[in-house]
User: Which sequence fits this backbone?
């Protein structure tokens, strides 16, 4: 078999011919036997060059040209592997070759500048013939439509005459409009191997122009990847891969059989509202209205957590200012009413764009109102919290002065600092969290060093000359603190009216008046290594890429959101917490979870894709969240094992104890050494005895002792800290990723 690329250098061919003639001894050799032709559809077919597509590890498709004449579109396309070798052998007769073409045209709504893709080749989706979806031309339905040029290039002539065919939805083909040809291929071989690829081609048939044509480019797939992993966006069984293909199918006229719009803008907004989506019932009552569509498996409601950003209406999470997007500002200048009703529902009825096609939301509403919700956060990012006169000279006591400042140095007053009573919102007090041993993952939760004792509410201390003057002995500060790292983390939330700080006005102890909104000041924590021999500054070892966290969660996380410093409270050995149901009620034993930062991050809804998780963020791709910093010898990854020796991590036991009241003590607290704990946070419930023995045989600790009497070693935490794990010897970052199906 000879494998060649599609383009071969003429000079190489000439030189090869010269070499052949130069090696002759003057006598012709005997003719060899005739070669055997390849089998049907197999490699080596006479006249082919390249690789048969059934032997390819991957396929890359590209449409190179399209022509239109008398209602018929003809398209030229290429298939090749990543080395550029042409893939021949695509065939309508091959049972595995599922290859399709779709068409859509970009129309401008009459009376407005709103552009929408509208599908051609439409098919009905209900018995009444009133709802539609985009149809396809399938290679299997027209073998004679395809010409295989035997080198990885192909020509397909559409079987549909666009001038004479009657579209099910009544759409009329217009050769003067931008047309999109889209390819979908998905080969699922009996061996389990799969080839899937998309491609598209935009052009104006009347002029054959491909440059300067009308577009509708509002977002990029790369922006979606801020939160989603590529695998989680392989829709319809892995067939749909490219955003352009999604746009042409999920267009302005498609809906499910119940007439629920599945236009891309409407669908994306509605899905991301998740459980927050509400509407009005027939009596006008506001009720939950999760986006629900009818699929092949029945109705599916998107009623689970779906959009983790705060503020919720941070449109810039998806609508980024990317100069490569030709229509990046279209959502502000000429909003699609159907997209708006994805969030705002379709009540009242006159807001449905299909009932009033001429309606544009921006006729009455400014799309910029959505950015108003960002103003408090954008302003708070320019503010700062300043510490001075930090004093640890009195054993067991810490004192300091702290103030919040605007960007121009104006002092934020106590009345402008948001505060809720403990009963209505314990996470919103203006705290300073005192920590030490930052490089060792913060203090152990022992005695008065638990996080609840290390949080100081500055409003409990006098405010003098622009500073809160704090002195406290309630924290069990180590006697040798002068030789250890220290951190003061400010968690100050300021009340805003728009971009302006304001005195907080409460409707109750739990909420502000409608015109006000609180936002956290995003300032660096005060960190110092008190022993000047180490240069005076200390930071935590690089683990998490905080930019990734903000990229998905936007301005604010669950609570106390001054940056991604969750471990200051959620230390490795923090006590277990109860899992809550959707009503906030603690559930029974067996559902307890570790509340350490590592465990919570790995198990968070949306992060966990295994065993029924959402698949939004594939936690098996560790680089989704973990940092990669330049170090000695190359990149150092945040998920390297063996860097956190001497730590004890709490994990739930998942084992009942005889006589235990599950409502009082839902589950036992066990401890694990650091590397073992990282694995346990995901795999604990699924580990075999052999895997557990492997962990323990290589120095990992996981307590308690699991003997017949269930005798618990009272020093589990000590054993976890003393463990000498050897996991890093074999489990390098590359190997960790390989085990999970990814590669660095």
Assistant:
């Amino acid at each position: 078999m000879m494998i060649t690329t599609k383009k071969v250098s003429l000079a190489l061919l000439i030189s090869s011919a010269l070499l052949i003639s130069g090696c002759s001894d003057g006598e012709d050799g005997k003719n060899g036997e005739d070669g055997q032709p390849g089998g049907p559809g197999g490699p080596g077919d006479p006249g082919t060059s390249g690789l048969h597509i059934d032997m390819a590890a991957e396929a890359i498709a590209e449409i190179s040209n399209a022509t239109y004449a008398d209602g018929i579109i003809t398209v030229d396309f290429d298939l090749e592997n990543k080395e550029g070798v042409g893939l021949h052998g695509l065939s309508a007769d091959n049972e595995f070759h599922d290859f399709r073409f779709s068409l859509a045209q970009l129309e401008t709504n009459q009376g407005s500048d709103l552009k929408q893709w509208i599908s051609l080749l439409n098919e009905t989706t209900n018995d009444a013939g009133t709802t539609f979806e985009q149809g396809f031309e399938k290679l299997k339905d027209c073998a004679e439509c395809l010409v295989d040029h035997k080198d990885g290039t192909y020509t397909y002539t559409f079987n549909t005459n666009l001038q004479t065919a009657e579209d099910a939805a009544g759409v009329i083909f217009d050769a003067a409009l931008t047309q999109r040809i889209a390819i979908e291929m998905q080969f699922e071989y009996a061996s389990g191997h799969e080839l899937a690829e998309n491609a598209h081609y935009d052009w104006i048939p009347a002029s054959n122009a491909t440059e300067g044509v009308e577009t509708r480019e509002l977002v990029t797939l790369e922006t979606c990847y801020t939160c989603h992993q590529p695998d989680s966006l392989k829709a319809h069984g892995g067939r749909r891969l490219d955003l352009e293909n999604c746009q042409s199918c999920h267009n302005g006229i498609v809906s499910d059989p119940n007439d629920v719009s599945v236009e891309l803008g409407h669908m994306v907004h509605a899905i991301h509202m998740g459980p927050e989506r509400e509407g009005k019932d027939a009596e006008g009552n506001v009720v939950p209205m999760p986006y629900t569509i009818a699929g092949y498996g029945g109705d599916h409601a998107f009623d689970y957590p779906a959009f983790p950003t705060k503020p919720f209406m941070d449109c810039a999470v998806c609508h980024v200012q990317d100069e490569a997007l030709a229509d990046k500002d279209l959502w502000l200048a000429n909003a699609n009413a159907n997209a708006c009703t994805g969030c705002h529902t379709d009540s009242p009825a006159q807001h449905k764009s299909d009932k009033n096609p001429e309606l544009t939301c921006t006729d009455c509403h400014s799309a910029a109102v959505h950015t108003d919700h960002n103003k408090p956060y954008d302003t708070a990012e320019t503010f700062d919290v300043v510490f001075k006169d930090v004093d640890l000279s009195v054993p067991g006591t810490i004192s300091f002065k702290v103030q919040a400042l605007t960007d121009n140095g104006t002092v934020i007053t106590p009345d402008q600092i948001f505060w809720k009573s403990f009963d209505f919102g314990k996470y919103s007090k203006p705290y300073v969290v005192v920590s030490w041993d930052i490089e060792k993952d913060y203090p152990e939760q022992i005695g008065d060093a638990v996080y609840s004792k290390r949080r100081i509410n500055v409003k409990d201390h006098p405010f003098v000359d622009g500073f809160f003057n704090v002195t406290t002995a309630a924290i069990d500060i180590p006697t040798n603190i002068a030789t250890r790292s220290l951190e003061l983390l400010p968690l100050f939330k300021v009340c805003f009216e728009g971009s302006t700080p304001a005195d907080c006005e409460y409707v109750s102890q739990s909420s502000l008046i409608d015109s006000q909104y609180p936002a956290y000041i995003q300032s660096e924590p005060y960190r110092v290594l008190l022993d000047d021999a180490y240069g005076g500054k200390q930071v935590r070892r690089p683990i998490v890429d905080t930019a990734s966290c903000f990229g998905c969660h936007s301005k604010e996380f669950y609570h106390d959101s001054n940056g991604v410093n969750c471990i200051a409270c959620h230390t490795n050995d923090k006590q277990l917490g109860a899992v809550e149901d959707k009503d906030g009620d603690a559930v029974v034993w067996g559902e307890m979870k570790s509340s350490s930062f590592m465990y919570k991050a790995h198990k968070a809804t949306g992060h966990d894709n295994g065993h029924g998780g959402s698949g939004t963020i594939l936690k098996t791709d560790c680089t989704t969240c973990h940092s990669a910093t330049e170090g000695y010898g190359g990149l150092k990854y945040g998920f390297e094992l063996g860097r956190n020796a001497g730590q004890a991590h709490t994990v739930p036991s998942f084992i009942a104890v005889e006589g235990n009241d599950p409502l009082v003590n839902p589950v036992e607290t066990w401890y694990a050494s650091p590397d073992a704990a990282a694995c346990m946070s995901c795999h604990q419930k699924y580990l075999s005895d052999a895997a557990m023995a492997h962990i323990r045989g290589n120095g990992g600790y996981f307590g308690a002792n699991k003997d017949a009497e269930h005798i618990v070693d009272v020093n589990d935490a000590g054993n976890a800290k003393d463990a000498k794990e050897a996991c890093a010897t074999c489990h390098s970052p590359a190997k960790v990723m390989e085990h999970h199906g990814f590669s660095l």
User: Anything to note?
Assistant: The mean pLDDT is 82.
